[in-house]
Amino acid sequence: MKDSTSRFSDRVDNYVKYRPSYPEAVLDCLKTHCGLTSESLIADIGSGTGISSQLFLEHHNTVYGVEPNAEMRSAAERLLGTYQNFHSINGTAEETSLPTGKFDIVVAGQAFHWFDQSRARQEFQRILKPGGWGALIWNERRTDTTPFLRAYEALLLEYATDYQDVNHTRITDDDFAHFFAPDSFSKFTFQNEQIFDLPALTGRVLSSSYCPNQGDAGYDEMLHQLNVIFEDHQTAGRVRFEYDTNVYLGQFA
């Protein structure tokens, strides 16, 4: 299995272009349940290309994006360079290098399944202010609500190398409940979607670290089957990804 800190290095361009953002409802949820304001200081752990950081930057928060992958971190610095309140940090969930007791909310978007949970919990608790919050966020692709999504899932199961090993759905609600302090854990779900033409759908599948990339075994066969699936299920040259955006909230003391 690829090292989690480098496995997206050859996927950055497609990741930037074709991964989904998060709905505004996430901000409303954090305002209601975590006291989020534009003055809240945010640590975005595993910030990648800056998708989750941008959500908070547009809310006028100051965001420290912590990312160990050099290529993804560089992409975030390029894409978010116009935001003076964005700070890019070379670090990990277990060793962020951030100051102790300074942050109101620690966020991890589409990244928690890569963390050493015990060490990350200690680090999150260290950098948060007393009474601070953790927010773990995922866009979880629906796999069986439409014929297209069922066909796409079957494609991944056939061609993806370690899809079932690294799939974040292997983490259960019990894992989240144990990560946070007792009785502080809650979960909220919102709808999200992406609409793709064939080139964008191709970019979306190639943004996934578990899929064959150009030059890998199975690459040509996978793209051929993807074209077949697209033609079978497209409407006016488009297909739709449906997501449940899940937000897991909790405190650490």
UniProtKB/TrEMBL annotation:
Pfam family, one: Methyltransf_11
GO molecular function, one term: S-adenosylmethionine-dependent methyltransferase activity
Recorded coiled-coil stretches: none
Keyword Methyltransferase: yes
CDD domains xref list: AdoMet_MTases (cd02440)
Keyword field contains Magnesium: no
Name listed for the protein in its UniProt record: Methyltransferase type 11 domain-containing protein
Organism this protein belongs to: Gimesia chilikensis
GO terms (BP aspect): methylation
Entry superkingdom: Bacteria
Keywords for the protein's UniProt record, in alphabetical order: Methyltransferase, Transferase
Residue ranges constituting the Methyltransferase type domain according to the UniProt record: 44-133
Family that this chain belongs to: Belongs to the methyltransferase superfamily.
